[in-house]
Structures are given as C-alpha cells and as structure tokens.
C-alpha cells in the first residue's frame, strides 16, 4: 500500500515538475489550451474507457508512397493518412452513418443546396497551430484547383460545377452545391483538412505535389488526426506518435488517443504478415485471407480472431462488351456475338456454382453474390433481387434458345457450338497476384466445361490486366474484384455510369451503347440528386434490377473481413469498411500498458 | 560384369517407374482435373481390414469422409458404411498412352472417392494428378534433353571438326548462351506470346525453350571429343584414303561421342524435369487444370498450405525415386565410359 502511495506521489511530483518545465520552456499555451479544449470543444467518444500508454505495432503491405492526402493514390498511403488527418464530418465505420468530426454540427438548407457547418473551437493541428475556417477554405481551394490535380476534385464536382465555399465567421463555413446531392454530408468524409500555415507557401510556388514525402521532418508536417509522424526508417517502419492536441476524449474525460506510439512495419507479403503476427512482432493483423485466418484460428494463443462478416468487396466475372469496330479480326467478332447475347451471359450466370466459390475460395467465410451491392452494405442492398440456385438445365435451355447447340466428339465429350458451328472457346483473365480470384476462375472454368464451353484461365500481372481491360480492350472475359470505399452508391458511380472509367465491360463510353445502360445512367444520376433516402433507394433498387437482368457483370462472392489482435489490445472492433481495424485507432489501448509505463 | 547387371537393375527400376507414368490412366483412379467440391483438402484415406465393430473383412475397404461440424477442412471417417476396394474397375474415360480410349482402372471404390494421396484445394485427387503430371514433366524432360543433345551434337561436331573461325564463332555463341540469365528472359518472352496459349502449345513451347537453352554444354563436350578424335591415326588414315568429311564424321567420329551423349542424357533428363517444374512453379509452365509436377509443387507456395496440409508435400517425395534412378544411371554410365577410355588409351599406346 505504502509503496503504491509512494509511487503515486512520485508521479504527481514528476508531472508537476514536467508541467513547470513546460511553462518555463515557453510552451504554456499548449498545455492551457489543451485543458481548455477538453472542457469546451473536445468531442466525447462513447465506449469502453481504456488507459493511455504503450505502442501498438501493425504491419502494412509495403511502404506508403506519401503522407500527402492530395497525391495519395495507393491503399497503404491512404491507411497511414487516415490516422494522421481528420475530416469535417466522418462516417462511423461501425454504424455506417455520419457523425460530427471537426464540424460540431451542420445544417442543410430546405432546398438541399446549402450546407452550413459549425466548426469545433479551440482545435489545434498536431504542431500546435490553431485550426479555423481559413484552413477549411484553403483546403477546398486546393482540392478544387485544377493545377493541383488532387484526386478529391472529382468528388467535389456536383451537377457539373465545383462546390463553392464561403466563410461566415471564424468557425462557420457554408458550402453551396449547384444541384441537390443525395449523398449529402457523407461527401465530407475522408476529405482531410490541411494546415494552411504549412501548405500555403508551397501552394503558391506550385510545389504541393512534391511535399509530404515520408522523409519530411516531423516539424514540417501536421494534421488534425490522432497521430503525427515521429520517425521513418526506409524499407522498415514508420513510427507515429500521439498527437497531444487531438480533439477527442473518452467518457471519463481522458484525452484520446490512448496509444503513445503507433508503428507501421512494412511487410509486403501476406504470409510474412501472418508469421510476424504469430511471433508477436505485430499486435494486430487485418485483410487476412480465409486460409491464413483458419491457420491463425487453429493455433490461437494470446490472440483473438474476429470474423466481421462480409465486407464491401464484390468479385465478378465480366465479358468484353466493347464495340470491336471495323478492323476487328473475325475471331473477335465471332466471340463478340456470343458475349453480346444476353441469354449467353445469363446461362453462364446460371451455371456458376457460387456456393462452391464461397466454400472453396473463402472456406465458407464469405457470401454468395447476385448483385452489385455487397451484403456488408446494410442500407442499400435490394432484398427483392432474385437469388436463383445454380441450374445447369436452365443454362442449357437458355443457350438453346439463343441458337447454340451441342456436338459430341469421339471422346464422348460434348462441345458447345454457336449457330454457325463454331465451338465456344474463350479465355478468362485473372490477376496473377490474387490467388482467390485465380481459384474462382478455375472453378468457373470447370462449371462451364459442364456446358461444353472450353475455357482457359490466363493469369496476368495486375497492371497489364488493367491495361488490357481499360485500354487495348483485347481480352475475352475477366474475373475481377472491386471494394467500395463507402456504403453509399456514390462510391461505385464509376462502375455504374457508362461514361465511368471502371464501367469495366465497356469503359468510358461517349454515349451509352445500349438502351439498358442509358436507363441505368438515368436512374443513377437521378438518385444522386433525389432528396430523401427512400427515393434514392427506390431508384437504386431499379438500377440493380436492370443490371441483374442484363448480366454485364456476373457477380460471384463477397469475402468476410477477417482480422485478429492480441488479447491485450482493448477496444478492438473490426469494421467492414476501410480502415478495417484502425477506424477507431484513437480508442485502441493496451491493457498491459500500465505495467509498461511503470518500467 | 557386375557393372552390366547393376546397369540392368537401374534400367528395370527406371522402366517400372516410367511404366506407371506412361500408363497413368490405368494406374490412376480418377481424371486429374475432376473436382470434388465437397472434399477440398481431404487427407489421404486409410485402407481398413477391420471395421469399428471388430469384424474382419475379406476385402480391404475405406470409410467415406465427412466434414467435422462447422469446419471447412477437418474431416473424419463416416463409419456408417464401409466401401470395399475393387480392382479392374470401370471409371473415368482416358486414352491409354494418349491413343487407346479406355475406362479400365487398376483400382477404385464404388460409392465414394478414394484419396490415396489426399486431395487438393478443389478436391482433385492428388495421386491421379501426380501420375498424369509425370507424363507432362517426364516427357518434357526427355524431349527437351533429346532436343538439346541433338543441337549440341550438331554444333559441337561442326565446331570441332572444322575448327578455325567457325569454331571460334560457335563457341563464343555457346558461351553467350551459358551466360544469359534465362529465367528473366523467359519472363520477358512470355509477354510477347499470345494471351491464351493452349496446354498443348505451351507444352511444346516449354520443350523448345528448355531444349534450345541447354545445347551449349553438350556442344562443348562433343567438340572436345571431336577435336581429339579427328587427330586419331585411323581417322587420318581414312582421310588419306580419300574419305569424305561426311563419311568420316558418320563412320569414325560420331561413334566416339556415344558414351558422352548417353551420360549427358541421363544427367539432363532430371535437370530438364526440374526446369519444367521451375517454369510451372513460377506460372510460366503448363496452365491449370492440366497437372504437371511443377504445378503440384506450386501449391506449396502458400504458407497456409505448408502448415495445414502435410499431404501436399507427397508429390515432392514421390519425385525423388525418379531423380535417384536417373542419377544412378548417369554415374554408372560415366564409370563405364571412364573404363573404356582407359582401355582405349592402353590400345593407343601399343599402336
């Protein structure tokens, strides 16, 4: 008892000494304002109260390219940036609904065109500089500047016009849209608010694209997120430390984040990540394949594995539906004739054994899929979409209706042939780096053999695959997967719209090639500006139905989000939205952190 | 003479191994590409003679597999029903030696699938895949070795016989071939090939590639022998009698290279089988679902497979006797050759 009291006394003495030292060293403002901010303007986050201290180590699939949100295009950079930056309004990854972040509250005008955001007061960037409406204005100016080429720009063009931003006072900002926008305040999620005091100079000099590399000195970079950069060791790790000015606190009034340090180890290989997790070098692991998940589940000691359910990734097979043009070879034209036939695509869809895909590829940790909206998206799925069971009879009947027939070879194997007597043969591309999709393709190959189609699976390096699908358009069919970044149709808009770059079966069309694509375009655009959720949902449901009727994409399956963490990690609640395990990073804590701190 | 006998034993041993692979359709119970989606990663099944109630059966039998509750890849024996093993059963269609259509298999089980070596991710029978995979891999090895020896023989003989600038040029090219980083070139080459290459085309392509790549070493060996052989007294004598170049090569010089070529063949075949395996392992080889030994081993690239399913290693073990056979043969042949050389050398000194 006395020992503990002595320790407590010592801690008190130490902290007061530190406090005095800070005052004497000329940083009084930092400490006072932090205390003030916790009283007035910090956001209180509900949930289990942890305690501060400790470092959490996670692995990252390779080195992030940049810390600069303006130019970050790769998933690794985005993951790191998501814990260093903050947005005005945030989507809670668990409830999939919006909640206040840097904006304390917001109001949408009755016509749906004006968004008035009230900013949190007394918030500071991670370098201690205050945040106000000028930072917001500057941020959106940069995002919308064509010369900056920010990837966020497209998201901020509504109704063909960029969003306009107006400052009312130091803590009130008004955004004006040219057209009503159904996505509403979700628009602000992920749009990091940039520090004007650091970036204005480089912006004027046109150098915004070059800054924010990982080698940036810690005092040259700041954000509003829970962590800030501490150390970067090339090819090994990136160490972040807690942002002492962070604007959230727990229900006990303790400032967040709990963790003192967050370390990203660069481990490029999924299997190596598993080994590092098993050997306790990392504390958490996410984006696990089902195989590795079951390996880890089988020999669990000291850690917990969590299956968060199906995520937002959807895998699908699609055929090349591009107009081959005049110069196409007869072979291409012959195949185009099959692929353009709706009944052919429906027959393929009927023959695919989705349950087998879920079982063999995802070891049952996934969901079969019949439409574009993955089951992880709780609000937008169309419950009325048909889920036909696999039926080879139905498939054969459809093919017969479309003029196909079967011939029996000397081996007794039947071969499907078209009306002109050509045997049906084609190839399916898959990415050689994705074992799951290669497996799906192999299963489809076997399924279609039962219909008499001779299919070859061609694994290609992902970039050359993408080049073939979107640029040269020289391919027959392809198995691919897309992970929506948000549970809102807007995140898949480029898949839906015929002018979209990821409208994969026939990308970037000048005019919709078919009547049904035109109809989908109309529905999607209409739902974007429909005012209520119910109206949007109705339009979106119809678009999903049309997609399923025409089967340009044959949906296969959606994998579960699988993650694991050491038992000592508190508040570990993986979500099905990215970042899967770090979405509540400010609340993650180490249960044994006290002992470490005492050391 | 005991050398002759050992040689015969090695040949019989290799012959038997090859026989099982050549007649894979007969020895393998199933079609190598046939999937059993209910039984992925099934472990090797045991043959029983005594059932769970203690009754002795006349014929060995197996129990069907059933999934353990809630598991994906944990099987247990379904002891409700015993399936006896039968011999000479009718099963999946195949062509014996690639020609004769047949449905006869050495063994099989009615009512359930019998996995001798377990099954892979798609529930395909590993044992059947191993045998059929051997057809691809061994044939690629044999034909590839034959091709490169043929090339090596031709080029080596030309270089050795004519010497001078022809020799210089050919040998420099040979050195270039030895120095090139082949694996990376092959990756580059794959990019130029058409997108979808059928398994048969790929097969011949692989043979052409590994055959064309490997001619340099045998060519140098052959050249050395030809160089010394053309200076032999009996060759000079024949030339003095007016024999043509072609006659000399055919009658006197090429026979000298026979023992070297045989030894090289025995060394190169396993090497080229390995080359095919490397190519398939790296995804440049025969496309799935056609089995080859390289494809079978490439399953082991995944960590989860390595630690979860020990029977996926079995193909690697099964390949060992083939290599042992070939390398044993090669060392015997080399011993014989060296013996001959000593004899020859003795004769030469007398004349």
SSE layout:
The complex is a heterodimer of chains A (599) and B (351).
Chain A: H1 2-24, H2 28-40, E1 43-45, E2 55-60, H3 75-82, E3 89-91, E4 98-100, E5 103-108, E6 114-119, H4 133-144, E7 157-158, E8 161-162, E9 164-169, E10 172-176, H5 196-204, E11 227-233, E12 237-242, E13 248-250, E14 261-266, H6 270-278, E15 284-285, H7 290-298, E16 303-310, E17 313-319, H8 330-340, H9 342-351, H10 354-362, E18 366-368, H11 392-401, E19 405-408, E20 414-417, E21 425-431, H12 435-449, E22 454-460, H13 462-472, E23 477-483, H14 493-496, H15 515-529, H16 533-550, E24 553-566, E25 569-570, E26 589-590, H17 593-598
Parallel strand pairs in A: 1-13, 2-14, 21-22, 21-23
Antiparallel strand pairs in A: 3-4, 5-6, 6-10, 7-8, 9-10, 11-12, 12-14, 15-24, 16-24, 17-23, 17-24, 18-24, 19-20, 25-26
Helix pairs in contact in A: 4-5, 9-11, 10-12, 15-16
Chain B: H1 2-22, H2 24-27, E1 48-50, E2 56-67, E3 75-96, E4 100-109, H3 126-162, H4 164-179, H5 182-192, H6 199-213, H7 216-229, H8 233-240, H9 245-281, H10 293-298, H11 303-308, H12 314-350
Antiparallel strand pairs in B: 1-2, 2-3, 3-4
Structure explained in plain terms:
The complex is a heterodimer of chains A (599) and B (351). Chain A has 599 residues and is of the alpha+beta class. Chain A is built from 17 helices and 26 strands. The two termini of chain A are 19 Å apart. In chain A, helix 10 packs antiparallel against helix 12 (435-449) and helix 15 (515-529) runs antiparallel to helix 16 (533-550). In chain A, 32% of the residues lie in helices and 22% in strands. By secondary structure, chain B is α+β, with helices and mostly antiparallel strands. Helices cover 60% and strands 13% of the residues of chain B. Chain B has twelve helices and four strands. Chain B has helices spanning 2-22, 24-27, 126-162, 164-179, 182-192, 199-213, 216-229, 233-240, 245-281, 293-298, 303-308, 314-350, and strands at residues 48-50, 56-67, 75-96, 100-109. Chain B has a four-stranded antiparallel sheet. In chain B, a hairpin with a 3-residue loop joins strand 3 (75-96) and strand 4 (100-109). In chain B, helix 1 (2-22) packs antiparallel against helix 12 (314-350). Chain B is elongated and about 85 Å long. The two termini of chain B are 27 Å apart. At the A-B interface, helix 6, helix 7, helix 10, helix 12 and strand 22 of A face helix 11 of B.
């Amino acid at each position: 008892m006395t020992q503990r009291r002595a320790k407590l006394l010592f801690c008190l003495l130490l902290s007061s000494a530190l406090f005095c030292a800070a005052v004497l060293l000329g940083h009084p403002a930092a400490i006072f304002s932090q205390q003030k901010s916790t009283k007035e303007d910090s956001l209180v986050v509900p949930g289990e109260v942890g305690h501060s201290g400790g470092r959490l180590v996670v692995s990252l699939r390779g080195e992030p390219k940049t810390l600069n949100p303006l130019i970050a295009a790769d998933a690794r950079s985005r993951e790191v940036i998501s814990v260093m930056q903050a947005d005005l309004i945030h989507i809670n990854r668990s409830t999939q609904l919006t909640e206040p972040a840097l904006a304390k509250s917001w109001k949408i005008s009755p016509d749906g065109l004006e968004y008035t955001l009230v900013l949190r007061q007394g918030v500071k960037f991670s370098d201690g500089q205050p945040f106000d409406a000028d930072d917001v204005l500057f941020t959106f100016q940069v995002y919308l500047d064509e010369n900056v080429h920010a990837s966020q720009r497209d998201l901020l063009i509504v109704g063909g016009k960029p969003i306009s931003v107006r400052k009312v006072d130091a803590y009130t900002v008004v955004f004006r849209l040219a057209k009503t926008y159904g996505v509403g305040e979700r628009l602000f999620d992920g749009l990091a608010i940039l520090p004007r005091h650091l970036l204005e100079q480089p912006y004027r000099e046109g150098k915004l694209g070059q800054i924010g590399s990982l080698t940036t000195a810690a005092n040259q970079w700041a954000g509003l997120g829970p962590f800030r950069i501490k150390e970067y060791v090339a090819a090994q790790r990136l160490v972040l430390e807690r942002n002492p000015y962070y604007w959230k606190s727990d229900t006990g009034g303790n400032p967040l984040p709990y963790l003192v340090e967050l370390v990203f180890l660069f481990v490029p290989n999924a299997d190596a990540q598993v080994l590092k997790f098993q050997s306790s070098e990392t504390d958490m692991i996410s984006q696990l394949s089902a195989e590795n998940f079951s390996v880890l589940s089988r020999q669990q000691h000291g850690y917990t594995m969590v299956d968060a359910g199906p995520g937002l990734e959807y895998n699908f097979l699609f055929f090349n539906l591009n107009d081959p043009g005049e110069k196409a070879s007869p072979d291409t034209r012959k195949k185009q004739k099959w692929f353009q036939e709706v009944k052919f695509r429906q027959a393929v869809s009927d023959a695919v054994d989705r349950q087998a895909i879920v079982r063999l590829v995802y070891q049952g940790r996934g969901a079969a899929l019949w439409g574009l909206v993955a089951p992880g998206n709780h609000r937008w799925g169309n419950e009325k979409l048909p889920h036909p069971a696999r039926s080879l009879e139905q498939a054969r009947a459809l093919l017969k209706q479309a003029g196909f027939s079967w011939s029996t070879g000397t081996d007794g194997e039947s071969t499907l042939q078209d009306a002109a007597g050509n045997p049906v043969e084609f190839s399916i591309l898959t990415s050689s780096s994705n074992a799951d999709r290669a497996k799906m393709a192999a299963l489809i190959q076997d399924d279609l053999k039962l219909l008499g189609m001779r299919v070859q699976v061609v694994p290609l390096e992902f970039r050359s695959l993408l080049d073939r699908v979107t640029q040269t358009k020289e391919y027959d069919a392809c198995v691919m997967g897309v992970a929506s970044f948000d549970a809102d149709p807007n995140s898949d808009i480029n898949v839906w719209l015929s002018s979209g770059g990821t409208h994969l079966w026939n990308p970037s069309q000048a005019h919709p090639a078919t009547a049904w694509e035109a109809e989908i375009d109309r529905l999607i655009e209409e739902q974007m500006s429909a005012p209520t959720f119910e109206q949007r949902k109705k339009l979106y449901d119809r678009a999903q139905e049309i997609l399923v009727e025409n089967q340009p994409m044959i949906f296969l399956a959606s994998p579960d989000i699988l993650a694991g963490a050491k038992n000592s990690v508190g508040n570990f609640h993986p979500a099905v939205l990215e970042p899967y395990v770090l979405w509540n990073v400010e609340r993650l804590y180490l249960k044994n952190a006290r002992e470490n701190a005492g050391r | 003479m005991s050398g002759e006998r050992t040689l015969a034993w090695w040949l019989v041993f290799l012959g038997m191994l090859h026989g099982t692979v050549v007649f894979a359709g007969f020895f393998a119970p199933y079609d190598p590409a046939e999937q059993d989606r209910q039984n992925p990663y099934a472990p090797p099944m045991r043959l029983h003679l005594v059932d769970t109630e203690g009754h002795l059966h006349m014929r060995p039998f197996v129990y069907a597999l059933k999934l353990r509750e809630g598991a994906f890849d944990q099987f247990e024996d379904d002891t409700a029903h015993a399936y006896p093993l039968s011999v000479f059963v009718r099963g999946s269609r195949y062509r014996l030696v690639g020609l004769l259509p047949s449905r006869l298999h050495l063994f099989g089980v009615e009512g359930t699938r019998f996995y001798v070596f377990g099954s892979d991710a798609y529930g395909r029978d590993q044992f059947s895949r191993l045998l059929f995979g051997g057809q691809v891999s061994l044939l690629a090895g044999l034909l590839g070795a034959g091709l490169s020896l043929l090339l090596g023989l031709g080029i080596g003989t030309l270089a050795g016989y004519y010497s001078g600038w022809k020799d210089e040029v050919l040998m420099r090219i040979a050195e270039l071939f030895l120095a090139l980083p082949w694996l990376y070139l092959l990756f580059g080459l794959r990019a130029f090939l058409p997108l979808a290459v059928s398994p048969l085309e790929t097969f011949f392509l692989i043979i052409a590639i590994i055959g064309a790549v490997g001619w340099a070493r045998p060519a140098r060996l052959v050249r050395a022998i030809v160089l010394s052989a053309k200076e032999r007294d009996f060759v000079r004598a024949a030339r003095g009698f007016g024999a043509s170049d072609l006659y000399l090569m055919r009658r006197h010089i090429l026979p000298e290279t026979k023992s070297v070529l045989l030894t090289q063949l025995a060394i190169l075949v396993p090497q080229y089988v390995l080359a095919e395996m490397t190519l398939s392992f790296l995804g440049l080889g025969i496309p799935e679902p056609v089995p080859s030994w390289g494809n079978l081993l490439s399953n082991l690239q995944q960590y989860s497979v390595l630690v979860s399913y020990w029977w996926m290693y079995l193909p690697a073990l099964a390949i060992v006797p083939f290599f042992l056979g070939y390398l044993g043969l090669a060392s015997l042949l080399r011993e014989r050759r060296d013996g001959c050389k000593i004899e020859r050398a003795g004769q030469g000194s007398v004349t």
